[in-house]
Design brief:
single chain; 121 residues; mainly alpha; 2 domains; 7 helices; 67% helix; 0% strand; elongated
């Protein structure tokens, strides 16, 4: 896809004409680079609304939440983590220094709230 087509797609999302393209990675990157808050929020909302609970909790989902500061999406993901050990294993592979403070607060809160459950394992 040519750059101009990608930008046109981005503008269509900005004006809420073409919402299905919101899942494409370059749209998320451009929204972050250009700091277009309404596109970023719209894409996050779409991720939350279409997120399947049946799908496994994956590194990619957590990375996406971290990379684009999708704190509401992170909240949804943390509700479906099997254990603190699983979350810790995934967090080891993420760039902790690049995470927002809100992201780290939510993960820390998860560890404190679920520490009693993990002790018995």
């Amino acid at each position: 896809m040519v750059w101009s087509e990608k930008f046109l797609e981005f503008l269509q999302i900005y004006h809420r004409v073409r919402i299905e393209a919101c899942r494409r990675f370059y749209i998320l990157e451009n929204a972050k680079k250009l700091n277009v808050l309404n596109v970023r929020r719209f894409c996050e909302r779409l991720l939350i609304e279409t997120n399947s609970i049946a799908q496994p909790y994956t590194f990619e989902k957590l990375w996406l939440a971290s990379e684009f500061n999708y704190n509401r999406y992170l909240t949804l993901l943390l509700k479906h983590v099997e254990s603190g050990k699983r979350l810790a294993a995934i967090l080891k592979d993420l760039d902790v220094e690049a995470m927002s403070s809100e992201f780290m607060k939510q993960c820390t809160k998860y560890f404190f709230e679920n520490s009693k459950n993990d002790i018995g394992e």
